[in-house]
Amino acid sequence: MSFLTLPPRLVLRALEDLHALASAARRLPEIQRYLERRLDRLDDHLSRGLAAAHRLEENTPPVADVLDLVKRLTAAAAKAGDRAESLERVATRLEPAASSLDATGAEIVAVGPDLTETSKLLDAKAGELVTGVGDLTAAERGLERTAGTLVEGAASLEQAVGRLVESADGLGRAVATLERLARKVPGV
Predict the structure, then answer these.
(1) pLDDT of 34
(2) What is the pLDDT of residues 152-166, one digit of tens each?
(3) Most buried among 29, 59, 154, 159, by the most CB within 10 A?
(4) Mean pLDDT calculated for residue range 45-70
(5) Nearest-CA neighbor of 167 among 58, 60, 44, 46?
(6) Whole-model pTM above 0.85?
(7) Is residue 157 a contact partner of residue 73, using CB atoms and an 8 Å limit?
């Protein structure tokens, strides 16, 4: 079959196809340059992402160490709370004794003028005991606040550790994705 015997529509269609192929062939260098620029940028992003992941890995303490610290802080907070409760019980037992001692001192003063000097000494001791109870009560409150702060700090630290673990997991997935993409890039 000769070119001249082909139907004109078929020849026109072949010429249009040939023109489309020639146009596409002329654009190939431009498309290649565009793809090379994109691959270079992707390679730069991948390199920066991997470098950041390595820095994060080097600067992040092991999660087990952080969890151990949280456990120790929680245990210390619990001990402080137990001690505060113990001090509160002691203070509660000392208050009536101090009040009773104060009342006894007043009775001794009333009984006889020769016991006045002894009564004054007992009054001073009762005052010291009352002050000591006040000091113990203040120390107990301080310990309670410290225990509360430690418990809050441990809870905050546990939350921070949880977020750190989630971030590390997300970063690990991102690094794995970047590494898979890097393997697909020719010449990387």
Answers:
(1) 96
(2) 877 777 887 788 888
(3) 154
(4) 83
(5) 60
(6) no
(7) yes
DSSP the chain: --GGGS-HHHHHHHHHHHHHHHHHHHHHHHHHHHHHHHHHHHHHHHHHHHHHHHHHHHHSPPHHHHHHHHHHHHHHHHHHHHHHHHHHHHHHHHHHHHHHHHHHHHHHHHH-GGGHHHHHHHHHHHHHHHHHHHHHHHHHHHHHHHHHHHHHHHHHHHHHHHHHHHHHHHHHHHHHHHHHHHHHSTT-
Question: How far is the C-alpha of 67 from the C-alpha of 61, rounded, in Å?
Answer: 10
Q: How far is CA 19 from the centre of its chain?
A: 63
Q: Which residues contact 123 (CB under 8 A, 6 or more apart)?
A: 102, 105
pLDDT at 174 over 90: no
Cα(44)–Cα(62) distance, integer angstroms:
29
pLDDT tens figures, 137-146: 887 888 788 8
- Residue found under tokens 């026109």: 12
Q: How many CA atoms lie within 13 A of 139 on its CB side?
A: 15
Euclidean distance between CA atoms 177 and 182, whole angstroms: 9
- In this structure, are residues 176 and 81 in contact, taking their beta carbons and an 8 Å threshold? no
Mean pLDDT for the chain overall: 82
- pLDDT for res 167: 82
